[in-house]
Design a protein that fits this description.
By secondary structure, the protein is mainly alpha-helical. The chain is built from 20 helices and three strands. Strands 2-1-3 form a three-stranded antiparallel sheet, with no helix packed on it. The protein binds zinc ion.
């Protein structure tokens, strides 16, 4: 009965693995059980006493590492990591690497697995070392570069992330240009925060070279121009975004308004807004247009404008704005009722997310260039249509 229990324990994690492996493991276990190793009962004892860590030590000693059993050890280690038992996975993989009997391919495989164990436990420095060793060995290059790229992004080590991404592109044949452009933008933003504008500009140039459609690079470039008083060039950079990816058009409206105000040329801005409002029919653009009409022309014109637009596109924000303007012209009971409705529309707007990840559906209230949910770059975009507007 004890013997059966032990076999059961050994096979338990194995059940999740592929069929051929189960067969192989069963054969090995059968071989073992023929000449019962004294360690076997020791291990069994640990299992029965619910000391799985010690039982694993016994397993490691019992199943000698040789060319036949390396796969078994690797699979078991991998399984432990997947189950979140990383310490055990680490012990199994370290034990493998320590053996001199392994050939180069097997050792490299064990290094890769151990590197992934370290990543899982947050020991990024140790993981980095192992993946760099694999790169030097010219083995498991794709996996090594993929993981190194993850590590440098987690550490916000953008310089190394750029170097590795370029090497990864060469090895894998993948196009990582838009990701590389984002890394350059990260460096540019750091330089901008530090006030080193010339370096920030250089990084933006690199970002554009990597991906001419990089919206973020245009936004940062516009900021740099604005900081240096080159307002016309800032406007040009912001407006370039329309050709790069018009999904982000709402991101530039307010900064553009600031630029035109600085040039004392709001009329030209209103003209620009009317043009793009017709093309995109976006509520944020319409709301700003309404406010500008109210400010530069008069409130009745603004009310008429938003009322007309609402007939084409019914949106909560539009209704909210309409109530706001109508409120200022009401009194008595009408004022009270409108105030109550205004509170409701304000609440509805407040709860809405304005950005969403196209890849995993993550909802956000602000723009993230890298999705906090699925870690993909440039997958979060402003929401258009009923949900966002
Ligand atoms: Zn996502």
């Amino acid at each position: 009965m004890h013997l059966e229990l032990n076999i059961f324990w050994l096979l338990l994690p194995v059940a999740a693995l592929s069929g051929w492996w189960i067969g192989r493991f069963a054969q090995e276990t059968k071989k073992l059980s023929k000449n019962i190793h004294p360690e076997y009962f020791k291990g069994l004892n640990f299992v029965l006493n619910e000391q799985p860590d010690k039982a694993i030590e016994v397993f490691i000693r019992m199943v000698e590492v040789d060319n036949e059993t390396v796969e078994t050890h690797l699979a078991l280690g991998n399984l432990f990591r997947r189950r979140g038992e990383v310490d055990r996975a680490i012990r199994i993989h370290q034990n493998l690497i320590a053996r001199r009997t392994l050939n180069q391919g097997q050792r490299a495989h064990a290094l890769l697995e151990l590197g992934m164990d370290y990543m899982r436990s947050g020991l990024l420095d140790r993981a980095e070392k192992l993946f760099l060793e694999l790169v030097d060995l010219d083995l498991y290059q794709n996996e090594a570069y993929f993981n190194l790229l993850e590590i440098y992004q987690q550490e916000k080590d953008w310089e190394n992330a750029i170097i590795i991404a370029k090497k990864f592109e060469t090895v894998s044949g993948k196009n990582l240009n838009s990701m590389i452009a984002q890394f350059f933008c990260e460096v540019a933003e750091n330089e901008l925060d530090a006030g080193i504008l010339s370096s920030a500009k250089e990084q933006i140039h690199n970002a554009m070279n990597a991906n001419s459609k990089c919206v973020r690079a245009s936004i940062i470039e516009a900021k740099i121009y604005k900081l240096t008083g080159k307002i016309e060039q800032a406007i040009e950079s912001y407006q370039r975004l329309e050709l790069q990816d018009n999904n982000y058009i709402t991101e530039i409206i307010l900064p553009l308004y600031e630029c035109y105000k600085e040039l004392d040329n709001v009329d030209q801005f209103i003209e620009y807004l009317r043009k793009i409002a017709n093309v995109y029919g976006n509520i944020n653009i319409l709301l700003i247009l309404t406010e500008l009409i109210a400010e530069h022309e008069d409130k009745d014109l603004a009310i008429n404008f938003i009322f007309q637009e609402l007939r084409n596109r019914a949106t909560v924000q539009g209704v909210d704005k309409l109530i706001e303007y109508t409120l200022s012209k009401s009194e008595g009971e009408t004022y009270k009722r409108l105030s109550t409705i205004k509170k409701l529309t304000a609440k509805l707007i407040e709860k809405k997310s304005i950005y969403k990840c196209n890849n995993c559906g993550f909802d956000a209230k602000m723009l993230h260039w890298k999705c906090p949910g699925c870690k993909q770059w440039e997958s979060i975009k402003p929401i258009y249509g009923v949900a966002g507007e």
